[in-house]
Write a structure and sequence with these properties.
The complex is a heterodimer of chains A (325) and B (283). Chain A is α/β, with parallel strands linked by helices. In chain A, 48% of the residues lie in helices and 16% in strands. Chain A is built from 14 helices and nine strands. Chain A has helices at 3-25, 32-50, 55-62, 70-74, 118-123, 131-147, 164-168, 171-184, 199-203, 224-232, 238-245, 249-254, 273-291, 296-308, and strands at residues 79-82, 95-102, 105-112, 151-157, 189-198, 210-214, 218-220, 260-262, 313-315. In chain A, strands 1, 2, 3, 4, 5, 6, 7 and 8 form an eight-stranded mixed sheet that branches. Chain B is built from ten helices and ten strands. The model of chain B has no long low-confidence stretch (mean pLDDT 92). In chain B, 37% of the residues lie in helices and 18% in strands. Chain B is of the alpha/beta class. The chains are: A alpha/beta (325), B alpha/beta (283). At the A-B interface, α7, α8, α9, α10 and α11 of A face α1, β4, α5, α6 and α7 of B.
Chain lengths: 325, 283
């Protein structure tokens, strides 16, 4: 059960009442006062529900079934030609890649794709990418780097696929090689977390020169369920784990792990998807315009420095050591 | 073999007042073993060949010829998330330090193996399950940068349950940090070798462990991306015993070789010899 979907229900009912009253108001002008009152109530509830969300509510927002997915962003590009497969085993539909035009610019788009309903999710493995998917990702990063085409990624996964087949086909190696290719790519890389950024499976598309998150997206070392299972042996304590993990866009901007937050409309990205997608694509273009001014050497160097300094450690003064015997 | 001076220095520094128990039991065959005998046998059960998880210091002693110049030991963790569940993160760290005699989950430094100068990192499962937080990433990145300057091969022994939850995304980012240092190091033509020991999983497995030019699995080590329990819960069935073992990975073509602990040093020495750009220094 999605807690945001539950919280939305009252608002959606109210919305419907307002719409109904509005059509009735055409013949009964006296209803306008009632409509105004309902609208005020609507706004108040909306602020109460979405004005300040807990980390767990944000996790649910990032998984909202109506939240725009990667394909919605891709559909708004000027052109898109999908490139399939890992050239070895299969084409993983949970990750889409291809050449595209973003404005005037050629880009290599790589995007994790989750489904909106059970049927789509079964086909897309709930957005959990398998080794073949990551090998496609690596292939496209390397191709883009060689041809000098910037890389644009959309991140949306609860994590890499943890199944038997994925272990048999070296999931670890597949992810490790994506990370490697991202650190050496000689082109600008812009990553946007549009939904859930789950662990290493998300990072495989997200080592980038400019990392953005939608305001209510989440990005975490492990899914809250996974973290609760690891630490306390109980996945049901996910809400508590979410409160510890510092997985919101605001937290991560503070740590210097992401570079920019894309604001969402009140109530979440799905409340005005076209405007949100337009803003996102515009911000990607702006980042690319800025990064394109750098030489390949400078890009790789800057990316190195950026990741080299992330962390929190201290230097402990070494005490003098006595050698006995 | 006399205790090398570096080890004496390190051990004395952290030795607790009470002595560790003199005896231990093999978890596989139940044989009762005298700790000193077990140590002399490289922590391998003489009866059933079970490879005990090794302390990082013992591993370094086993691999390095004599002197080991440690780096990065002064880098210690902070508490960026102000994490508290049943215990605070600093309390967990203090307990790990006490238990493992280590300041963090990896020991890094320089030494020689059969006369070949190397950079060596050894992870230790005794410190918070070998999890990778900021300090593990930072120390390994420091080692790779220094090894790149010195143009010496780098060997990493991995042992890890994955990223450290209590450092959140800062822990995950160490995968990026170390990978960046690895790609720089390898890009200059340096030799990078990883030895995957029991257990190697999660964020460590999915980053530098599987970026080696040559990847060795220690005999019978458990190596994988997702933990066994996670997979079993997902598919709701029990996995075969050999699933995710080094031997299984060899059969599937994921690693170059499986090496018994007793042959580890000589194997590393040969690999360093094949790839050496200059003759080894006299030991």
């Amino acid at each position: 059960m999605n807690v945001i979907v539950e919280r939305e229900k009252k608002l959606l009912e109210l919305e419907k009442t307002i719409t109904d009253l509005r059509s009735a108001a055409a013949t009964q002008p006296s209803l306008s006062t009632a409509i105004e009152a309902l609208q005020d109530e609507y706004k108040k509830i909306q602020r109460d529900v979405f004005g300040s969300m807990t980390p767990w509510q944000k996790v649910n927002m990032s998984r909202h079934p109506e939240r725009p997915t990667s394909s919605d962003y891709i559909a708004r590009l000027e052109t898109f030609d999908q490139l399939h497969g890992d050239r070895h085993f299969r084409d993983d539909p949970a990750v889409t890649g291809g050449l595209a035009k973003l404005g005037e610019r050629s880009v290599m788009v790589i995007a994790q794709q989750r489904g909106r309903d059970t049927k789509e999710n079964l086909k897309l493995n709930f957005g959990m990418v398998t080794p073949e998917g990551y090998r496609k990702v690596k292939r496209l990063i390397d191709l883009a780097s060689r041809l000098g085409i910037p890389v644009v990624t959309f991140v949306d996964t609860k994590g890499a696929d943890p199944g038997i087949g994925s272990e048999e086909r070296a999931q670890s190696e597949a992810i490790a090689q994506c990370l490697y290719s991202l650190t050496v790519a000689r082109v600008p890389i812009v990553a946007t977390v549009v939904g859930e950024g789950g662990s290493g499976g998300a990072l495989a598309l997200a080592i980038a020169d400019h990392v953005m998150m939608l305001e209510h997206s989440t990005y975490s070392v492990a899914s809250p369920e996974g973290c609760a299972a690891i630490l306390w042996g109980d996945a049901a304590k996910a809400e508590e784990a979410a409160s510890h993990l510092k997985l919101t866009s605001q937290d991560l901007l503070g740590f210097g792990i992401i570079d920019e937050i894309i604001p969402e409309p009140l109530g979440g990205a799905h409340r005005d998807a076209p405007a949100l997608i337009a803003t996102t694509l515009q911000k990607i273009e702006e980042a690319l315009a800025r990064l394109s001014a750098l030489s390949a050497e400078d890009l790789v160097e800057e990316r190195y420095r950026k990741y080299r300094r992330i962390g929190a450690w201290q230097v402990e003064r070494q005490t003098a050591v006595a050698i006995s015997g | 073999m006399a205790m090398p001076e570096w080890l004496r220095r390190r051990r004395n520094k952290h030795e607790t007042t009470e002595d560790a128990a003199q005896w231990t039991k093999c978890p596989k065959c139940g044989e009762v073993l005298y700790r000193k005998d077990l140590a002399a046998n490289l922590s391998v059960c003489p009866k059933c060949h079970y490879h005990f998880r090794m302390h990082a210091f013992d591993r370094v002693s086993m691999i390095i010829d004599s002197d080991f110049n440690e780096i990065g030991n002064e880098v210690v963790p902070g508490d960026p998330l102000k994490w508290t569940d049943t215990k605070s993160y600093p309390d967990k760290l203090a307990a790990a330090r006490e238990k493992s005699q280590l300041t963090e989950g990896v020991v890094c430094g320089f030494g020689t193996i059969a006369g070949h100068a190397v950079a060596l990192a050894v992870m230790d499962f005794n410190f918070r399950g070998g999890t990778m937080g900021t300090v593990v990433g930072e120390r390994i990145a420091m080692l790779l940068e220094e090894a790149r300057k010195r143009k010496v091969p780098c060997i990493i022994f991995t042992a890890s349950g994955g990223a450290r939850m209590e450092e959140g995304m800062l822990a995950l980012m160490q995968m990026a940090k170390v990978t960046a240092a690895v790609s720089r190091f390898m890009g200059d033509g340096n030799f990078f070798l990883t030895v995957l020991t029991d257990p190697t999983t999660g964020g460590v497995s999915a980053s530098f462990a599987f970026q080696g030019d040559i990847i060795i699995g220690e005999a019978r080590a458990m190596i994988g991306f997702a933990g066994r329990r996670v997979i079993e819960q997902t598919i709701r069935q029990k996995l075969p015993d050999n699933f995710q073992t080094a031997e299984f990975l060899l059969e599937k073509g994921h690693i170059d070789m499986v090496v018994e602990r007793s042959h580890m040093k000589e194997t590393l020495a040969r690999l360093l010899d094949y790839t050496a750009k200059k003759a080894p220094v006299a030991v």
